[in-house]
Amino acid sequence: MNIRPTQPEGQRGGPDRLENRGVTNPPKRPASDSGAPSLAPDQVRLSDEARGIQGAAETAPAGELSADRMRQVLDRIQQGFYDRPEVVRDTLRALTPALESAGESN
C-alpha cells in the first residue's frame, strides 16, 4: 500500500517545505553573552491621524470637552450610566473638595 500526503503536486512536506513556497526562514538574532538570544526593544509608531488627535486633545482649553467626548457623555446620560448609585457616590466624592473650596471663597 502506498500512502501519499495531501499536498499539491510537486511540494514535499518536512523542514524544507517553506523553501518550496519561496518563503525563507527569518534571520536568527545573535545570542547575548549569557547564551540567550538578545531581544530588540519594542517600538511604537503613531499614525498621522493619531498625532492629530493627540494634538487636538492637548490644545483643548481646560474644562472644555472635545466633540467625541461630549458625544460619549451624552450617550451615557441617555443610557442611564450616571444614574447608578456607585457612579453618583464616586462623582460626589470627586466633586466634594471643589464644592467645599467654592463655598469657602464666597
What topology does this entry show?
Elements: H1 17-20, H2 48-59, H3 67-79, H4 85-105
Tally of helical runs: 4
Round the Cα radius of gyration to an integer and report it.
30 Å
How many strand segments?
0
Helix content: 40-55%
Distance between the termini: 98 Å
Low-confidence residue ranges: none
Multimeric organization: single chain
Structural class: mainly alpha
What fraction of residues sit in β-strands?
A: under 5%
**Overall pLDDT confidence:** 75
Main β sheet profile: none
What does this structure look like?
With 106 residues, the protein is mainly alpha-helical. It has a domain at 66-101. The protein contains 4 helices and no strands. It has helices at 17-20, 48-59, 67-79, 85-105. The model has no long low-confidence stretch (mean pLDDT 75).
Structure, briefly:
This protein is mostly helical and 106 residues long. The chain has helices at residues 17-20, 48-59, 67-79, 85-105.
Quickly list its features.
4 helices
